[in-house]
Design goal:
The protein has about 100 residues and is an alpha+beta fold. The protein has one domain: Alpha-Beta Plaits (2-Layer Sandwich), CATH 3.30.70.100. About 35% of the residues lie in helices and about 35% in strands. The chain contains four helices and four strands. The chain has helices at about 15, 20-30, 60-70, 70-85, and strands spanning about 5-10, 35-40, 50-60, 85-95. Strands 2-3-1-4 form a four-stranded antiparallel beta sheet. The chain is globular. The chain starts with a strand and ends in a 5-residue tail after the last strand. The mean pLDDT is about 95.
């Protein structure tokens, strides 16, 4: 059953961050994930949106962990850590359809 990863964070070093997305995209595909939505100008109904907001669909929770723990991802995750703050990444399970 698919799961969704909701990412939200602020970007404080755009120059460093620019190297992160092009390296993530091929790994998402490798792990069967699809980027469903991404917005750097999201509007909030309540609260304050972050500079980057994204929703990624993975085929399973196991696929999320395989992506996150992939040695290739771990080799450049420091780019996001160095260039962003207030990071939240949560896994949401899909409702079971009856």
């Amino acid at each position: 059953m698919p799961v969704y990863v909701v990412n939200a964070y602020d970007i404080h070093d755009l120059e460093t961050f620019k190297d992160y997305p092009p390296r993530v995209a091929p790994l998402l595909a490798k792990h069967g994930a699809k980027l469903l939505a991404m917005d750097t100008a999201a509007k909030a109904l309540e609260g304050k949106p972050r500079a980057m907001n994204a929703i990624v669909e993975f085929p399973s929770e196991e696929a999320v962990h395989n992506f996150y723990n992939d040695p290739e991802y771990q080799s450049f995750i420091h780019l996001r850590h160095k260039s962003t703050s207030n990071c939240t990444m949560i896994i949401l399970k899909q409702f079971e359809k009856k």
